[in-house]
């Protein structure tokens, strides 16, 4: 009984906050060598040690999750001392083509051009674009969606990674329009709800939220 109470108290005790994290080494798509609060450790992608989860690793930087936030840190860079949140990334988009906001992006490592659409529930793409991105969209759930041209059907998929400028989000919901009539990729609210938006002299500014 005493052992049970002891284990219960340990499991219920909140994890200590991480004060400093430094990247000492990176293994592309596999692991990272970190110094967490002065203690060096190797963490594989998707694993957690010392209160830090490694979400992604490239040859130049790592995406980490700790203290309730996601952080992008370069090799040999450090967050901490006394812990401070990193500066929020922003993207500035000028209007063109009839007042629309076009912006280059990246989906699962493939370049794509979006037009910002606050009226779209999800990122929306055509079947042709889904094939270009290598998505197995036919396994997605079938739903009815209302567009400017009426009601149509779409397959709902999850995009592993979506980047617009310096802003990156993971596990983003998207709709693949079955009739393949969508001429552009729409950057909808499944991505936009993760940013703050404002306009400055006709320029749309997206700023990531933590």
Brief characterization of the structure:
The protein has 210 residues and is mainly β. 10% of the residues lie in helices and 55% in strands.
CATH homologous superfamily title of the largest domain: Acid Proteases
User: What is the CATH architecture annotation of the largest domain?
Assistant: Beta Barrel
What's the CATH topology label of the largest domain?
Cathepsin D, subunit A, domain 1
Portion of residues in beta strands equals over 45%
Total domains, how many?
Answer: 2
Reading the helices and strands in chain order gives: HEEEEEEEEEEEEHEEEEHEE
Helix content: 10-25%
Helical segment tally?
Answer: 3
Mean pLDDT: 84
Quick one: how many beta strands?
18
Structural class: mainly beta
What's the main sheet like? 10 strands, mixed
Distance between the termini: 42 Å
Low-confidence stretches: 1-14
User: Over the alpha carbons, how many angstroms does the gyration radius reach?
Assistant: 21 Å
Mass-distribution shape: globular
CATH class of the largest domain: Mainly Beta
Give structural attributes.
mainly beta; Clan_AA_Asp_peptidase_C; disordered N terminus; 210 residues; Cathepsin D, subunit A, domain 1; globular; SH3 type barrels; 2 domains
Layout of helices and strands:
Layout: H1 2-12, E1 21-27, E2 31-36, E3 39-44, E4 48-49, E5 52-57, E6 61-66, E7 69-74, E8 78-79, E9 90-96, E10 100-107, E11 110-116, E12 123-126, H2 127-132, E13 141-147, E14 150-164, E15 167-177, E16 185-187, H3 189-192, E17 195-200, E18 203-208
Parallel strand pairs: 11-16, 12-15
Antiparallel strand pairs: 1-2, 1-8, 2-3, 4-5, 5-6, 6-7, 9-10, 9-18, 10-11, 10-14, 13-14, 14-15, 17-18
């Amino acid at each position: 009984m005493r052992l049970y109470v002891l284990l219960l108290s340990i499991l219920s005790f909140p994890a200590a906050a991480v004060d400093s994290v430094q990247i000492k080494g990176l293994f592309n798509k596999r692991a990272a060598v970190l110094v967490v609060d002065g203690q060096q450790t190797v963490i594989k992608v998707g694993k957690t040690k010392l209160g830090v989860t490694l979400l992604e690793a490239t040859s130049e930087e790592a995406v980490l999750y700790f203290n309730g936030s996601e952080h992008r840190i370069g090799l040999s860079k450090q967050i901490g001392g006394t812990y401070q949140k990193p500066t929020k990334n922003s993207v500035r988009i000028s209007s063109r083509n009839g007042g629309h906001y076009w912006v280059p992006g990246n989906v699962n490592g493939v370049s794509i051009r979006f037009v910002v659409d606050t009226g779209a529930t999800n990122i929306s793409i055509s079947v042709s674009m889904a094939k270009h991105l290598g998505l197995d969209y036919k396994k997605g759930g079938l739903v009815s969606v209302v567009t400017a041209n009426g009601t149509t059907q779409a397959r709902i998929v999850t995009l592993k990674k979506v980047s617009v400028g310096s802003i990156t989000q993971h596990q983003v919901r998207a709709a693949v329009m079955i009739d393949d009539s969508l001429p552009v990729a729409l950057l909808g609210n499944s991505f936009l709800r993760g940013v703050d938006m404002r306009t400055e002299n006709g320029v749309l500014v997206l700023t990531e939220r933590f």
